[in-house]
Predict the 3D structure of the following.
Amino acid sequence: METQSSDGLDLAQLMDQIRKDAEKRKRNSLKNGVSPFYRQLMSQGFDGLLSQRNSPLPDLKLQPPLEKREQYQLSDLLGFHDEAFISNAYRVILKREPDDAGFAQYLKHLRSGRYSKIDILRSLRFSPEGRNANVQIKGLGRFTYFRKLYRVPVAGYLLRLAVAVVRLPVLITHHRQLEAHTAAQLERVANHVNEAVAYLAEANRKQAEVTRRQLDHIHEQLRLHIDSLINEQEKLSSRFDEQVHVQERHGAELQALKAQLEDYIVRLQHSRMAIAQQEARLSHLLEPSAKSLPQSVLTQTAENEEDHLLDSLYFSLEDVLRGTSEQIKEEVKVYLPVLKNAGITSGILDVGCGRGEWLEVLKEERLQARGIDQNRIVLQRCRDLSLDVVESDALTYLGSLADESLNAVTAFHFAEHLELKTLVRFLDEAGRTLKPGGLLILETPNPENLVVGSCNFYLDPTHKNPIPIPTMQLLVEARGFRCQEVMKLHAITSTKIEVTDQLTSHLNHFLYGPMNYAVVARKPGSDTA
């Protein structure tokens, strides 16, 4: 019997769709914290859920069950149809459940009209297994006799035709009964499906309400938990920020203490050196042998010692204003190619060597050089670095040297400390002591930079006057040197004005141009003198 009603409702398709919806709900639901209803629905489906809940909907049975009897009438079996008929025929005649092959074959023949119910009952009853079971069904023999007659050629056909004509009113009555029965069965199916759908809809609504309340409860619990976590995180962040601030404050205090300690160490070193110099000068003045010297010699000695009273002060000024030793060493390396191009590796004199940065660079390059200076503090520093230095006035030391005994004379930030007359004498002595082709390198502040010429130059109180580039070139060439190159050095690049016109270009040149320059001059050789 088909499970489709007159209005197109397919019960199997409906139940299949219901199961698919249930599977979809199961996949989309929360995996944790779901209600027992949904856990049961996920694991057992609607059938298991409804069976365990004692569903008010009874199972739909379109055909009554077969009653077990000692003896069966033919009408007991003919009242069943389709699969139920074949199953009951096996149970009654063969006393067992139908096998798959036999069930499928008989169902096919029954539905195609090739076999009638009588044919199937006769086939089962008179099969070898049916003969052994020997189940008696009243009325089957009579119909079996007629079925044999129906197989007689021509006569059997005429007999079937005659019987059909005689039984036509009965067949019409049976057909009407079948129509009424089918309609009633379809109505029962439709009512049962409607009741099932209504029940499931109500159950779904109730469960949705329960689920919604549970979800609301879960959301509230999650919100409270998240708020608690956020509060804890804020507390931890606040504590962390406090710790960071404390650490930063301690770090800043530590750096300040380190800076103060370094400053104290430097001051202590300067103080110790100054005390040592004062002690040396006092010891020299108080020597017993000094009593036998003429007054003029004592006066000259005192004046010489007085000149060194400012050694410590000038060392402090240079240490702050000149820059660090590492910075100066990097800056003076620009002169190494000049010496190498001239082939000079020895006989180099650095006048006013200061802390000895240039001498260190030359020593690292394995070039032989000597420095002279009058500041005993910087000279001691140079000696600590194993540099070759001499305490002497520049003119005095140069005057003590033989003619043409040097290959190069360098003087960095030295010329601006001299009077014009002294500077000219220095150039003359340098020219005398240099060999033909020897180099003279003079570095000095560049007054073309307005900041240098108007302000920075006077940071050192021992400076006399700034010397413009043309003036230095003129002085060098006037004393017999040939000016080989003017090197403009140490331009300010970090704060330059963006060039938009000629005015800003000039401003950049005069405000942010090179802060120093160097004149590289050569003593003419014997062939060009």
Remarks:
- The beta strands are 72-73, 137-138, 348-351, 369-373, 389-391, 406-412, 434-445, 482-491, 514-522.
- The longest strand covers residues 434-445.
- DSSP finds 21 helices and nine strands in the chain.
